[in-house]
Amino acid sequence: MTTAYNPMELMICVAARELEDGATLAVGTGAPCAAAMLAQKLNSPNLSIMFEAGSISPQLPEMPISVGDSRAGHKAVMVSTMGAVMETCQRGYVDYTFLGGAQIDKYGNLNSTYVGGTHQKPKVRFPGSGGANDFGSFCWKMMVLTVQDARRFVEKCEFITTPGWLQGGNSRYEAGLPEGTGPYKVFTNMAIMDFEPESKRMRIISVNPGYSIKDVQDNCGFELLKAPKITETEPPTEMELRVLREEVDPHRYVIGR
Amino acid sequence: MKTQAMIEEQEYMTINIIKKGMGELFTDPDPDHARRFFQKKTRKMVNKAMTLSEAIKTFVHDGDYLATGGFGGNRSPIAACHEILRQGRTKMGFCGHTTTHDFEILCAGEAFDRLDAGYIVGLEARGLSPCARKYMQSGRVRVTEWTNYSLSARIRAAAMGVPFVPARNLLGTDTFDTSASMIIECPYTGKKLSLHPALYPDVAIIHVHESDVYGNCRIRGILKSDNDLARAAKRTIITCERLISNEEIRRDPSETTIPYFLVDAVCEVPFGNYPGNMVYEYFSDEEHLREWLKVEEDPDLFREFLKKNIYDCKDHHEYINKNGGMEKMLRLRTIEHLLHKEANK
Q1: For A237-247, what is each residue's pLDDT tens digit?
Q2: Would you tell me which residues 1-40 of chain B have a C-beta closer than 8 angstroms to some C-beta of chain A?
Q3: Which residues share a beta bridge with B54?
Q4: Interface predicted TM-score (ipTM)
Q5: N or C: which end of chain B has fewer CB within 10 A?
């Protein structure tokens, strides 16, 4: 029996499975936060969420609208400073981060600053780094959760806001970023990608139900590598969907998009 | 790891600067200049209570570099941002350190023309502000990129009284190239480090839960960088939900986040963070924040909206009264405490 679900629900459920119990995660609002809440309610009750505004290990009663709001600090073990949270990442205590952006390239670099025009007079201005460059530099494994289309998945970001594998190969560590950190997986509505260990180029490892490898490549602005064995992603279970819809996002702020 | 003997063996030590960001540095990172300024400030514990209008008139000038406390819409000095618009401040510098609704207001008044950007233009999960975006795309704002942590680190350096602190972010990115950071080789480990020059704002405005008339402040919930910000700023204006007695401050000094001598003005502005979220006091007015984003799409409507909600208001209370008054505030208090989720509410 298959249960109906939308692409956002699929991405959130699949990403939530990556977060093992006892892990630490630095996260923003929106879909990544929904994935963290879902993981906390299903497989990882001891997942420790950290928000850049200063809240440490909250138990979220509902989706925060801001990472600095009352919900983001609900039943936390501590409310501290931005420095304290970012430095916890910089010291190596934080396992995962989830990021997004207007553009992502084949090395997992992200652009959330501007598109078109010049830096001083951009055609479209976005928020900038926020905490993304910091999390992407410091956390052990950077994951990306985003809808797949060829305008977003570009050969080269117009502006690298947040470091992925930079120019591939060993370039990330040559730039001085902490050893052992880097992009880990990318979750889209169509597939799960990782990065080939030598070249650090993005590659397909699993295709989501209802899509083909061709669909994934057709909606990507650069050539994707293919893992030796490409699996089919397990669809969301009834349990995952029920908790996501009833407990995590009952007002459909994220899953209704 | 270099041993002391190895370090001494080298006849002349220099720190290797690997790369310099091309961004503009808008503030002076020299700690001795700041010390001279701080030396002249009074340390007397005097009554600093005044109206918000008086505080903005006295301590916020055209051209000043401004930093706001709080986290965008959360515990932010919204009433003070309105007053800055009413008093028509222009050509200011601004620290976009996770700024959301405060940034949106200051863009509406075009109060600043140079900007350190950490997080700007957006209101997190609510979306992007058309007004802020338009202003940032106009080419009339000189902008230097940073990150949220970079701005925390820069404010920390100033609070420490040193010219910079090192970190391991920014490396390898265009964010670095458009910042005013430098990358150096660490003299101990050889690792590459990004430097964060001290940021001493001319003026900081911080909204807190409680303060006495001298400026001893209590902040509940997340601090972002506000403990450091009060220490880094040349002048600090405090707006508070309520004034409390000095006796109460001294009853439990462990609750004090900001001591009086850092503070220049104390303004009691209940609901001073409306329509934002003041933790443990009132939740954000999401309906009204959506109204802002919607009305910004039409320049004529937006002009009228600003006239009604800011320029024609005597003070923040008039703004609140135009948008639901006490009844609305009580509802936001109920939501803040999640009482609307309890049975029979």
Answers
A1: 999 999 999 99
A2: none
A3: none
A4: 0.97
A5: N
